[in-house]
Write a structure and sequence with these properties.
This is Trk K+ transport system, NAD-binding component. The chain is built from 24 helices and 22 strands. It is α/β, with parallel strands linked by helices. It has 4 domains: 100 residues, Helix Hairpins (Orthogonal Bundle); 134 residues, Rossmann fold (3-Layer(aba) Sandwich); 164 residues, Rossmann fold, CATH 3.40.50; 106 residues, 2-Layer Sandwich (Alpha-Beta Plaits). A hairpin with a 2-residue loop joins strand 20 and strand 21.
Length: 594
């Protein structure tokens, strides 16, 4: 059965036809590499074998009666076949003459030389990096081609890609990986993921490499450009926009200029970790409980709830390191109406104090004793750690925000117990997870900054009751005829509340422990709705709770009669036969139990 071509995609008012992404012929490349590298050894073996067979057939011998005789070409070929392969069956069809034995002896040593040459060349080929890459490319291409479920294409398997991969795997989401480092792909192979993750060593800027990783696959549902190279991320964004314009793209960059160039290709989601951290910290200064809730939900299932901080009093901040990050952060603080003192050794960046932040005299000149907050934002972790130690010695009550550059220093920053820590790779991973794992979660996080701190604290308390200190599953429910076939007819009659959906389908008097975070109805978001909300067909709901609770809610969605029981308390046989035998009909709507 032929499939129809994909429909044209509209981008900024233009109709853009989807272009096929055709990877290189990986199988043919592997075969040709073997033939090219083994050409000389194979020709050598063939020549040795040909000369040996021809010579043996021309040398005269004697038959069983002592009459002169020569071996036919077939007999000579047969004898040399088992002789050259060191099997050895003897002298047939009759005993050889001394001349034939001398020739056979010479050809034995000659074939040994030929085999040694061929085997050595084969071992060198197996160890050749280009051949191994071609073989791995073909293997990955086969695995990607066989995928028959939605997956994401992740370009870059550094710390951000690894953190995001772990969160996606916890949700049961499939993904493929492209990275230029062979060591990172080797680490991917031994990672304890639930599903097989195809990983390819290659430059993500090459569209053919992206094609092998599944950019042109019909089940590809999104692209994430998470490499540490802004130009590579820009190239991935361009390739996805031009070849698969209908796919969502999340791209990482710290350069406003590169972000602007990315925006020229479709509508990618550009994540700047410096901007995002500034937004998060501004939220932490205004509403600490909202900041705590946001970071917990963005971290994904299994994340532990971090302690809630306290916002510092209004006052002056000291920002050490006035590079790209420092400028972003100083601008965010000034937007909050705060006074900022900046320290940087580069005078062209126009810092308040020119000098090395590692110099104690420079730090003392910043008057940390009269400040309320410090940002240790240099690109050197040792400098940042020493800054924190000196600042707390001068002013123990200082609010400290720090930038961690190397993953290996995680334990050191954890021991310092900073109030706000920026790990750019983690910010990117959490932001990408929130956007792609569940769109409803991203909508919830967008609405969160507009809520009060008391409201956020209440949501955190409810999540603690439902999940404990470690976040459990986040799952959505779509109340459509396809996703809720048993509940949808009941919704059409009205009177089914959110509290009814959170009743145990086996015992309606027991309430399921789950937190409804959001209801999306006709594009309008209702945050943490109460149980009296009457559900309507087409509603989309986001819940947080244990996986067992999710399965019990699914019983209401898919098993006939459960919804009526939850509302009325009367059990209705789900089978048509049992309803006929019991002469029962769905009970009329009764007032919902409290």
């Amino acid at each position: 059965m032929e499939t129809a071509p994909p429909p044209p995609v509209t981008t900024r008012g233009r109709r853009v036809r989807r272009r096929p992404v055709v990877p290189r012929a990986e199988g043919s490349a592997t075969v040709f590499t073997v033939l090219r590298r083994m050409r000389a050894p194979l020709i050598t073996l063939i020549v040795i074998f040909f000369v040996s067979v021809l010579g043996l057939s021309l040398i005269p011998g004697v038959d069983a009666e002592g009459q002169p005789a020569r071996l036919s070409l077939f007999d000579a070929f047969y004898v040399m076949s088992y002789t050259a392969t060191t099997i050895g069956f003897g002298e047939i069809p009759f005993a050889f003459s001394y001349a034939q034995r001398m020739w056979t002896t010479a050809t034995i040593y000659l074939t040994v030389v030929g085999w040694a040459y061929a085997i050595g060349s084969l071992l060198a080929l197996v160890q050749d990096r280009a051949f191994r890459q071609a073989l791995a490319l073909r293997h990955v291409s086969r695995k990607v081609t066989r995928l028959r479920e939605p997956f994401l294409l992740v370009a870059g398997y550094g710390q951000a890609g690894e953190n995001l991969g772990a969160s996606l795997d916890a949700l049961g989401r499939r993904f493929t990986v492209v990275d230029i480092s062979e060591t990172r792909i080797d680490a991917l192979e031994i990672a304890t993921y639930r599903g097989d993750v195809p990983g390819i060593v290659g430059d993500a800027r090459d569209p053919h490499v992206l094609g092998v990783a599944g950019l042109g696959h019909p089940w590809c549902e999104g692209v994430l450009a998470l490499t540490g190279d802004d130009e590579a991320n820009l190239a991935v964004t361009m390739a996805a926009a031009l070849l698969r314009p209908e796919l969502p793209v999340v791209s990482r960059t710290t350069s406003p200029m590169v972000a602007e160039r990315m925006a020229g290709f479709g509508s990618p989601t550009v994540v700047n970790p410096f901007d995002r951290f500034g937004d998060h910290l501004r939220l932490a200064l205004r509403t600490p409980a909202s900041y705590q809730l946001m970071t917990w939900l963005e971290s994904g299932p299994g994340a532990e709830l971090t302690p809630r901080g306290t916002a510092p009093a209004p006052g002056r901040w000291v920002v050490c390191g006035y590079g790209r990050f420092g400028r972003h952060f100083a601008a965010d603080l000034r937007a909050e109406g705060l006074e900022v003192t900046t320290v940087d050794p580069s005078p062209e960046e126009e810092p308040t104090i020119v000098g090395d932040a590692a110099d104690l005299d420079v730090i003392r000149s910043a008057d940390l004793a009269g400040a309320v907050g410090l940002v240790a934002g240099t690109d050197n972790d040792t400098t940042n750690l020493s800054l924190i130690a000196e600042a707390r010695r001068i002013n123990p009550g200082l609010f400290v925000a720090a930038r961690q550059n190397q993953p290996a220093d995680t334990a050191l920053f954890a021991a310092m117990e900073v109030d706000a820590l920026l790990v750019p790779t983690e910010v990117v991973a959490h932001d990408a997870y929130a956007r792609l794992s569940t769109p409803l979660l991203w909508r919830f996080l967008r609405e969160l900054p507009g809520q009060s701190d008391e409201w956020s604290a209440g949501v955190v308390d409810r999540l603690l009751d439902a999940c404990g200190t470690h976040l459990e599953a986040l799952w959505k429910v779509r109340l459509t005829a396809e996703d809720a076939p048993a509940l949808h007819p009941r919704l059409a009659r009205g009177g089914f509340r959110l509290a009814d959906l959170l009743r145990d389908p086996a015992d309606r008097d027991r309430t399921l422990l789950a937190v409804p975070l959001l209801v999306l109805r006709r594009g309008e978001a209702l945050l943490t709705p109460d149980g009296d909300l009457e559900l309507e067909p087409g509603d989309e709901l986001l819940f947080a709770g244990r996986a067992a609770v999710h399965r019990e809610v699914e019983a209401t969605l898919f098993i006939d009669g459960v919804a009526d029981y939850l509302v009325t308390g009367h059990r209705v046989p789900s089978s048509w036969i049992w309803r006929k035998l019991s002469r029962s009909t769905p009970a009329a709507d009764a007032p919902a139990a409290p």
